[in-house]
Design goal:
With 203 residues, the chain is mainly alpha-helical. The protein contains 11 helices and 3 strands. One of its GO terms (biological process) is phosphorelay signal transduction system.
Length: 203
């Protein structure tokens, strides 16, 4: 019933098409391998464990972006999903318009994590900062630091560019350099690291 409602919700407007659905993570891997979709929505605790098959899905079609759709707000589940390489983590209470917006955002290269979950992960990580964070902060340019500060506050690339008076392409350039220095793979991990390094950003 949930899957049927989700399909109806994400298909409500013409720019998103659902090309297949499956009952298990194993089936998801096979569908991705044969159909090569842009995005897969994956239940965290589906049959044969969705989180354990994220890497298999990414290997089956590397360009794909994975959005976890789950009821779990467990910090371990969230961190394991992010470490596995998902591009989004969405709670099942999200509305149809919210889901469509998230899908479009992820398709555009963004990563998504609800702000309250970012805050929860921040609380888990806030005591883990150390001297290495000072070194990371010192390695960042002024522009990279500005971009990371705004990223951690939830702004999109376009919004960051508008605020700093530069192009979206310039923002992507600074983020790419910052990701390498922070040793992170995506916006969510970068935001979490920024919140750890600069705790005042959370306020």
């Amino acid at each position: 019933m949930f899957r049927s409602g989700l399909i109806q919700a994400v298909s409500a407007e013409g720019d998103i098409s659902v090309v297949a659905e499956g009952d298990s993570a194993n089936e998801a891997v096979e569908l991705v391998r044969s159909l090569r979709p842009d995005i897969v929505l994956l239940d965290l605790h589906m049959s044969d464990s969705g989180i354990a098959r994220v890497r298999d899905i990414l290997l089956a079609h590397p360009p794909i972006r994975i959005i976890i759709v789950t009821a779990s707000e467990n910090e371990t589940d969230i961190t394991q999903a992010l470490e596995a390489g998902v591009s989004g983590y969405v709670l099942k209470g999200a509305t149809g318009p919210e889901m469509r917006g998230i899908i479009r955002s992820v398709m555009g290269g963004e990563n998504y994590l609800p702000k309250d979950l970012v805050s929860r992960l921040f609380n888990v990580l806030k005591d883990s900062s150390g001297p290495e964070d000072d070194a990371i902060s010192a390695s960042l340019s002024r522009q990279e630091t500005q971009v990371l500060h705004l990223l951690a506050r939830g702004l999109s690339n376009r919004e960051i560019g508008d605020q700093l008076g530069v192009t979206e392409r310039t923002i992507k350039f600074h983020l790419s350099n910052a990701f390498a220095k922070l040793k992170v793979r995506n916006r969510v991990e970068a935001s979490m690291t920024a919140l750890r390094i600069w705790p005042d950003l959370k306020s």
